[in-house]
Amino acid sequence: MARRYDPHRRTRIIDAALSVIAADGIAGLSHRTVAAEADVPLGSTTYHFGSLDELLVAALRRCNENFVRTLRESEALAAGGEAEGAARVAGSAGSAGSAGLADELTRLLGQWFAGERGAIELEYELYLAALRRPALRPVAAEWTEEAVELLSRRTDPGTARALVALMDGVCLQVLLAGGTFDAAYTREMLARIVAGGG
Q1: Alpha helices by DSSP H, the chain
Q2: For 32, which of 117, 151, 154, 186 is 20 to 30 Å away at the CA?
Q3: pTM assigned to the model
Q4: pLDDT at residue 30 above 50?
């Protein structure tokens, strides 16, 4: 019997890996569990991903796309970036610009936390897996670098990096402490960083 052409099989395998990790954690991930979840032959998973690290890299890269895409698609972050950049170079970046950036980042984080909590936990589980899996470290760094690059359109690179670090810290504290996202506190802390970077 001829093999059926399945151009989306690789994507289905990555989606299945994310489902397995969401249900059972990274410890539950194997080629066999992913193949069963994706409803594909075991050989398909090893054909597309020679090791579990390769599969985890693809899964983490997929997760990275989510929040960075949100930053990239934010009209408020794109709008006025050139004007604020010119003002910053001239040494006259205003507090309105600082407040605007803090407001937008707070809004985006709030929107993210308003979504499915399990999806956020999954993203951070993969992100933190890089601590023990060196193959994941460059991919984990991609998120930071792209977020810094996007935010550097509105502020200087050092301040952009501090903003990303604060957002990461806020997210981890909410997830690990089981609390709720405190928008007012987050906005105030983001605004302080932006104002200090001027």
Answers
A1: 9-24, 31-38, 42-48, 52-73, 75-78, 81-89, 95-114, 117-129, 137-151, 157-177, 183-197
A2: 117
A3: 0.80
A4: yes
